[in-house]
Amino acid sequence: MAKVILHPIGSHREEVADEKTFRKNLEAMEPLNARLRERREEVRRGWGEKYVDRVHAKGKMTTWERIEILKDPGSEIFPINTFVNYGLTFGEPPRTSPAAGVITAFVRVEERWTVVIANDNTVASGSWWPMTPEKIERAQEVALRLKLPVIYLVDCSGLFLPEQSKTFPGKLGAGYIFKMNALLSANGVPQIAGVLGDCIAGGGYMPIISDKLFMTEQAYMVIAGAALVKGGKSQTITSLDIGGADIHVHLSNCADERVPDDPAMIRRIRAEVAKLPGSAVPYYRHAFAPAPPRFPIGEIDGLLPADHRVVYDVREVIARIVDASLFWELMPHTGEEMITGIARIGGLYVGIITNNQMLTRHPEMRERSRPGGILYREGIAKISQFSRSCNADGIPILWLQDISGFDIGLEAEKHGLLGFGSNLLYTNSTNTVPMITVLLRKASGAGYYAMTGRPYEPFLQLSTPITRLAVMEGRTLAIGAFRTKLDENFQIITDDPEERAKVEKGMKAVEARIEADMDPYKSARQMDTDEIVALHELRGYLVTLVEMSYQSIGQRRIKNPRIWSMHDLDVLTDPTV
């Protein structure tokens, strides 16, 4: 019988970084963490206290207040896509749309992880803005992939009409939300909807396909509200008269039950979730209880340099996010620029693939070293095989990216990196196990794709405050853009002072634009990443995401660890055997 034996990984902080270096890294990270906290709070405030008071004056709770009483006591809410539309304005006069006017989050309800989709009623009465549909659909996609219950808290006054051309017609526009409703239903994913206020037009379709639909006494669902009815049919009537609980619970049968108010609604939704099958997480822990790392997670802020050019030992990062700082490293003697292995997070097995930043031995010329953070032939083959083995065994995969890209040059082409890279892309495109991607620092070029970047559909991708997502660094791209003006050493070749100044200015402008494009908030704003998470928050998110991967039973193959193909891989690649 094969046993999974995990080994201690990591060292005490004093053995990894001297006090000066550790403090320098902490000082560089703290303003970035402070900015993240401030911006989260800015988004959470919606349109501010005036609009909170307006919601309360109607006898309703704000959306965040609803979610706070929905979650299990003592549990944490894990928002996703917080910064969609951050810094953008729409309409005239210009208006912001914090979080695109909708909160999407993973919330523990009755000991089960759920996906909550809730209109922010402090932002234009929960209207749908540009990117609101895409944000809702992304949350629905996660629920569909992992078979997690979906809870809709509907309080939506319809499209933000001045920008309807960006919301209504496209493939992933508002209409696709309803297709996702249908796909969730067709795949047996529970959907529970609570209508707690406005529910107009498209907002009215979203809850209808849900398995359970409840309405408060203040709620109404209508194809068109009272104003449109008055304009179109010259009838003076309230929206409650048109589509309140009296109509939809007792006459149209479009809703199941009526409840008096918001707190009663939340209790009713929790009661429905309690009827669902329980979590399979304890079953798949195989008697292992979650265990904190041996080293404090907060130390990562001082061990991972904010400067992307400075190397560090990623094993020390792993040691601070996995249970008991235990790790089974597989194939350590080949493709040393990549690290692959098995750990437990929250008591559950997960495969980890990450870039080794340190110098590694050249496999063909042992007297030479190669820089880390780059994909070479051996490392590509290694992570392809490990990824396939995880998929065969049903082990979720955590990709920790800090990559500069693929190797380039004559040696790379002779080694057939294009072919090996294509093999890896095929593997990751066809894997069916849940995959999670974390962009620790650099996420550059095709290396970002090869390590399951967002286009390769990890069920969630996280960035950090120091993530740099781009094809290449700004300086490199500026050299490429002005290559005809430079010599072989990339120095400007003209003797004309005006021409030199023009080239220098142009290169600086390109570099500055690319640096701005690499801002993680820009990626989050346009949904190129799902959430920005401080380094010391990573374990909390990862415990949640791994638990979500194991919660639903029977929807994917999960092998008993005794019969993992990992054991075969270990034996076949052990140089001592």
What are the defining features of this structure?
577 residues; alpha/beta; 2-enoyl-CoA Hydratase, Chain A, domain 1; 3 domains; nine-stranded mixed sheet; seven-stranded mixed sheet; 23 helices; globular
How much of the residues is beta strand, in percent? Answer: 15-25%
Structural class label = alpha/beta
Instruction: Give the low-confidence spans.
Output: 228-234
- The fold-level CATH name of the largest domain is 2-enoyl-CoA Hydratase, Chain A, domain 1
Sheet of most strands: 9 strands, mixed
Q: What is the annotated CATH architecture of the largest domain?
A: Alpha-Beta Complex
Radius of gyration: 26 Å
Under CATH, the homologous superfamily of the largest domain reads: 2-enoyl-CoA Hydratase, Chain A, domain 1
Quick gist of this model?
With 577 residues, the protein is an alpha/beta fold. A hairpin with a 7-residue loop joins strand 14 and strand 15.
Give the helices and strands, then pairings.
Elements: E1 7-8, H1 13-16, H2 19-44, H3 49-57, H4 63-70, E2 78-80, E3 89-90, E4 95-96, E5 102-109, E6 112-119, H5 132-146, E7 150-156, H6 174-186, E8 191-199, H7 202-208, E9 212-216, H8 226-233, H9 239-243, H10 245-250, E10 257-259, H11 262-274, H12 281-284, H13 300-303, H14 314-318, E11 326-330, E12 338-345, E13 348-355, E14 360-361, E15 369-370, E16 374-375, H15 377-393, E17 397-403, E18 405-406, H16 410-414, H17 417-430, E19 435-444, H18 445-450, E20 460-463, E21 468-470, H19 474-481, H20 497-517, H21 520-525, E22 531-532, H22 538-551, H23 566-573
Parallel strand pairs: 6-7, 7-8, 8-9, 9-10, 13-17, 16-18, 17-19, 19-20, 19-21, 20-22
Antiparallel strand pairs: 1-11, 2-5, 3-4, 5-6, 11-12, 12-13, 14-15
